[in-house]
Amino acid sequence: MPAYRQLHLGAFMRPVSIHTAWWRYPGASTDANFNFAHLKRFAQTLERGKFDAFFMADHLAVLNMPVAALKRSGTVTSFDPMVLLPALAAVTERIGLIATGSTTFDAPYNLARKFASLDALSNGRAGWNIVTTSNPDAALNFGMDEHMDHAMRYRRAREFYEVVTGLWDSFADNAFSRDVESGIFFDPAKLHTLNHDGEFFKVRGPLNVARPVQGWPVIVQAGASGDGRQLAAETAEVVFAAGGPIGVAQEFYADVKARTRAAGRNPSHLKILPGALVIVGESMAEANAKKQLLDSLVHPDSGMAALSIALGTDASGFDLNAPLPPTPDTNDSKSARERVLDIAARNNFTVGQLAQYLGGYGGLQFVGTPASIADEMQAWLEGDACDGFNIMFPTLPAGLDEFVDMVVPELQGRGLFRKEYEGTTLREHLGLPRPPNRFFAA
Ligand SMILES: Cc1cc2nc3c(=O)[nH]c(=O)nc-3n(C[C@H](O)[C@H](O)[C@H](O)COP(=O)(O)O)c2cc1C
Q: What's the CA gap between 226 and 242, in Å, rounded?
C-alpha cells in the first residue's frame, strides 16, 4: 500500500558530517571535508539513493571555541559552498544543491547573481538556505566588533529576501529573443529595474543574470526562534528544523504551518525537514555499538565547547558535577539555547553530563536497523512532525553508503520514498510550484 505522502530527504553535509568525531571513526576518510574526489563520490552516491538535495551549511569564521577544542574539529577547513556546488553540479544530473547564504554578511546583489548562476548551470537544481548567522565571530571578519542584534538581523533578512527575489525577477522568462536578423538580443519591455531603497539596502538593479530556471531557487530557512519561524512562514519553501523529541517537533510543525496559513500561503508549499543523525546496523546491538564507539571518540574539551556555543555563554568555569546554573539570554541563536535548557531539564543532567551529551551531536538521532529506522521515520511523517529529514551521517564514507544501501531500499519498499526521480529540478523533487514573475505575467 503506498503511503499517503512520501518523505523528502536532504543530506546535511557541512560539507560532510555534523558529529564531532566523524573523522576519528575507524575507516573514515579523514580529509573528506576538503577533498573534492570524496565529495564528488558522496554526491553521486546520494543521487543513486534518489535524495532530494545535497545541503551545505556554511560558516564565515572558524567555530567560536577555544583552540583546545578547535584543534579537534574536522570541519575547521571547508570549501566555500558557492565554489563547491557548481563543481558538484557538473558531476551530477538530478540531485538538488542547497547552499547556505548569510543575510547578515553578504550583499543581496552578489548573492542573487551567484544563486541564479548556480540554478542555470545545474539546470534548475539550486536552493538558498537563508541564515542570519549564529556564530558571532563572523562579525570580526567583516569589519565589525560585535554581532548585529538578533531582531535587527531578522529585519535585515526579510528585506534581503525581497531584494534578492526582486532581482531574480529582473527579466521576464521570455525576454531573450536573440534575433540574429534584427540584431535585437532581448526585449527591453521585458526587463524590470528594481530601484529598491529600504532600511538596509539601496539596490538599483537589474540583475545581469537571466531569470533562474526554477523562477527562483528553492528558498530554505534555518533558525527557529519566534522571529525565525515568522521569517520561514512568510518566505520559506523548506525549513531545516533542529529536531528533538517528537512532541516538540509536532508543536514546531503545527506552529510553522499555522503561521504560513496566516501569512496567506499554502502550508503544503512549505516542507519541514528536521535534521536527524542516522546510525544503522544489521542488528540493534551493532547499531548501538557503533554509536557508543563514535561518542567515545569525542574529547571532553569538545563537549564543553559545544555547550558554550549552544548557550551563547562560556560554560568552562561551571561546576561539572552541579546542575546548569542560570545563564543570560543570548544574541547568538535563541532557539539553540532554549533547546539545550530543555535537554538539561528533561534529563536532569549535570553540566558535565550535558557537555558530554552535546559533544558529539545533541539533536535527533535514529539508531537501529533499517526496519526500526524506517518505523521511526514513518511515525514522524504520519504523526505530522515533519515532511522528511535532513539526514546527517555519523562518519564518511561508511555512514552515507550504509544509509543509501540499507535504509533507502527499506523506505522505498514501504512506499515512503521515491524509486526514481520524476522531475529534473529541485522544485519538482519537492513538489513546489514555480513562482510567477511579479513584474511580468506568464
Ligand atoms: C538547524 C539549523 C541550521 C543552521 N545552519 C546554519 C549555517 O549553516 N550557518 C549559519 O551561519 N547559521 C546557521 N544557523 C543559524 C540560524 O541561521 C540563525 O542565525 C540562528 O539560529 C539564530 O536564529 P534563531 O534564534 O532564530 O535560531 C542554523 C540554525 C538552525 C536552527
A: 14
